[in-house]
Amino acid sequence: MEKQNRRQFLRLAIRGTLFGGLALITGDLLFRKGGSLFNNNIMSGPTVWQLDPSKCIQCGRCATNCVKTPSAVKCTHAFSMCGYCNLCSGYFKPGTKNLDTGAEKQVCPVNAIKRSYVEDPFFEYTIDESLCIGCGKCVKGCGAFGNGSLQLQVRHPLCDNCNECSIARNCPAGAFSRVPASDPYLLKGFGKDRV
Amino acid sequence: MIFLLIIVFLPGVMAIQRFPKPEFESGYVVPVNQLPVQRGEILAWLDVAVLLIALSLVTYLVLKRRSRMGVFCISLFSIAYFGFYRQGCVCSIGAIQNVSMALFSGNYTVPLTVLAFFLTPLIFTLLFGRTFCAAVCPFGAFQDLIALKPLRMGAWLNAFLGIIPYLYLGLAILYAATATEFLICRYDPFVGIFRLNASFGMFLFVGLLMLTGVFIARPYCRFLCPYGVLLNWMSRFSWKHMNITPAECIQCRLCENACPYDAIEYPQVKKNPAGHRKQVNKMVVLILLLPIFIFGGVWTGGKIHRTLAGVNSRVRLAHILQPAHTTNNQPEIPEITAFRGSGITQQDLIREVTRIEHDFLIGSRIFGGFIGLVFGLTLIRLIITPYRTDYVPNKGTCFSCAKCMDYCPVVKD
Amino acid sequence: MKKTILIVLSLILLFALIGWMLFDLFMGRPELEKNPYDFGMKKLRETQIIPAYSEALPIKPALKKITSVATGPEGKIFVAGDGGVETFDFGGHLLNRISFPGIATCIAVMNNNILVIGMEDHVELWNSSGIQVSSWKAIDTSSVITSVAVNKQFIYVADAGEKIVYKYTLQGKMLARIGEKDPSRNIPGFIIPSPFFDVAISPAGDLWVANTGRYKLEKYGNDGSLLASWGEPSASIEGFAGCCNPSNFTFLPDGLFVTSEKGIERVKIYSQDGKFLALVAGPEAFDEGTHGLDLAATANGWILVIDPSRNQLRIFLPLEKK
Q1: Which end of chain B has the smaller Cβ count within 10 Å, N or C?
Q2: Is C27 within a domain?
Q3: What residues have CB less than 8 Å from C85, skipping those under 6 apart?
């Protein structure tokens, strides 16, 4: 019987140690500097993935690496930065002569950008998200020649918010990061830095 | 598209406006962007609540009611809720990585819900055994469904294959702690099924794993799952644990082939003094060998740390930038383009990579030593056969699935 | 027997899968995948024409961020940027440095060495001892000053926000708004989609303005009437590529135009009536995505180019004389 009691005690001791270990880990994670309960740390709430357009090099991996088909990354148009140009370099392939809405003249491989006349000489360009695949071709054209108002962003209702984003793992520019779910967009304005 | 919450947001507010805006005369108003957000935080807490309720229910059904049917129903619910609805993410297995990253690398805070997913099954297991594995974990529940022709494997095979989860756990913690990679997420075979969408490689991986799963029951749980290592430890020393018999074991042997997972331990004869002494000798030898295993592991870890570090994206970038890797007729590699535009000098990168490789040296050595220890302990556990009169579940590896209970003829009075 | 075979096969399968995981983890080279959505910038940036200029060693100012360059009397080179202006001679030696708070976006030099500096929304005048001579009040809240030009009597300020060129006296009194849309005088108005809007005064004394949205360089007379314009949109070497170019321009001493573009970064020389003559530097000389190649030309025909990407003042010499 003594042996039985000794074994019981040993088990209790180890159980206590295991529990203590868990408590230590929990305590550290909650209360350390930057921890989950520290100073209303906004990052202790749910986080989502987002990409920083100022780092993006439009490599096309947003379209190919997302676990969803089509990708949860879409082109977003920051209208306040757009020049409303007739010859939009995010819309028309370079060297296009007659500026009409012919599909083969468009940079977008799935013709997801809609061009509409506003007034002379301005045209409005909007993205049809149901078509956009997040490839970034228009972003490249807009950013290189124009103001960079077309920007790739993760669209959150579509994103599954994987624990590790497959696109983030393969982004060559390290543009992806976790952002608070309450403020999940990183659209870029002009700011003090000129283009 | 259905948005749960729509926030209308002016991108202009994000930056100081120093920009020539077009002047519209026709009254055209520049549209504002719709920037919808994710599902509400409250739903993440709902998941934690469902986890708690499911765990409590399964524990009750296994320990008190001893109902295999009840467990089966809960496992169907878990496949539906945690599997197809939540698509298997965030899961308790992956939560190990979040915890590791928060503990060891700066700049990351574990969300409270993820911490809850990590802790709750561990605490339940410490108290009641692996009821999480029984029916709450959608991966386990799924494998239970496809285990159609489970084959038995010997103790040694089970023991040595059982070292693989320790390797997986160690690597996963190493990579998460260095903020390199979430290994468990990367090679998660089940999310592809639950999302009904996977790359061709992952699809093949899942299919073949499931094929294995028809003959080797719960292959992921027994031979891959890193969380299972932690649950194993918790369960071994659990306060209460399910038993095959509701009362006393009568050694009727009806449950001998009841467990598809080889988790039932058979009665062992008491050894005569000579046999007992031989066992003690073997144990002493193995205990003396233990430091050698550990040291061997540490040494091996140190030797392979650069290979392990090669997975880290900064280390990989440094390798790519070496001239031997780039050929002129190739389209330029995006990583190089991005690096050239980033403003970071190659010196800075090398300094960063040296620091990362140093972290990996320490981590790999700890990892190696840990595996050496596990190897030694596995051997000890195989050699030592303690005296046992009854048929009992192995507390560490039993999934508390209650499949064996129906075989036992004993009725509780 | 059958069971053993099945177990062995299953185990082989399991090990194969683990092997695949290890192979993918350690041997995978995801960076070698081609981009199926390549825009084709690389091809666009290949020039078919050989540049007629060669590059000398660049000048590297100490300023954090340089934005514009201008030449002054006695062959001095003035580089303006974030926080100040540095003065160099032809050999790249630093002659003077003045500091001020704020970012200088454009600079022009008067004959008495007073610097006219555009500071985002207003203009300031500084002398070479670092003393502010005057600071004009901001024109409008949405003003974006992108270029200034001076002659003996007037200072011209290009405002990309208002899309107007203002004409001031040397003392800072505004005299006129040039280029305002006026169908009765056939002035089409400026279309400025991005913050690049350059003005310059030709050696003959005429005011020229780059109307980027219309791809034209336009000449305005003293009364504000449009006297001439040339330029066409085109990705080929003769025209201006993309949506809004040329981003900057200046004049050689003999009246030839020097223009620079963004998108396909190139610096070109045009004749006085807008015929393409020569390429100074093509995209291969610049980092992709370089915007704001501000230009100035020296009295002996050297072309100075601000490279904001590398934060250097680059110098190009005609190939015949080195």
Answers
A1: C
A2: no
A3: C78, C79, C97, C98, C104, C107, C115, C117, C126
> Which is it for the CA torsion C188, C194, C195, C199, positive or negative?
negative
- The predicted-structure confidence for B21-63, as pLDDT tens digits, reads as follows 787 888 888 888 778 877 777 888 899 999 999 999 999 999 9
- Structure tokens belonging to residue C195: 């913050």
Query: How close A101 gets to chain B, by Cα (Å)?
Result: 21
Q: How many CA atoms lie within 13 A of C270 on its CB side?
A: 24
Chain B residue with the nearest C-alpha to that of C159: B20
Q: Report yes or no on B82 lying in a domain.
A: yes
Tell me the DSSP string of A69-104: SS-SEEEEE-GGG----SS-TTTBPTT--S-S--GG
- pTM exceeds 0.90: no
Number of domains within chain C: 1
Number of H helices, E strands in chain A: 4, 6
Helix axes B346-383, B273-309, angle to 10 degrees: 170
Q: Taking CB atoms and an 8 Å cutoff, what residues of chain C touch B151? A: 3, 6-7, 10
> What are the counts of helices (DSSP H) followed by strands (DSSP E) for chain B?
18, 4
**What's the number of domains chain B is made of?**
1
Residue type, C92: G
Residue tagged 């110098």 (tokens):
C315
Residue C145: its H or E element = strand C145-150
Interface probe, candidates C38, C47, C194, C262, chain A, greatest A C-beta count within 10 A: C194
Q: Which domain holds residue B400?
A: 54-151+188-258+396-407
Tokens read off for B60: 């009750």
Q: Show residues of chain C in contact with B22, CB under 8 Å.
A: 193
The residue assigned the tokens 């690597």 is B171
Q: Max alpha carbon distance in chain A (Å)?
A: 98
CA distance C79 to C76: 10
Buried/exposed B328-352: b ≥16 CB within 10 Å, e otherwise? eeeeebbbbbbbeeeeeeeeebeeb
Which chain C residues touch B205 with a CB distance below 8 Å?
17, 20
pLDDT in tens, B247-289: 888 888 898 889 999 999 999 888 788 878 888 888 899 899 9
Tokens, residue B92 = 């308790």
Distance from CA of C303 to the nearest CA of A (A): 23
φ, ψ of residue C82 in degrees (nearest 5): -75, 105
DSSP character at residue C238: T
- Helix or strand holding residue B381 (H, E): helix B346-383
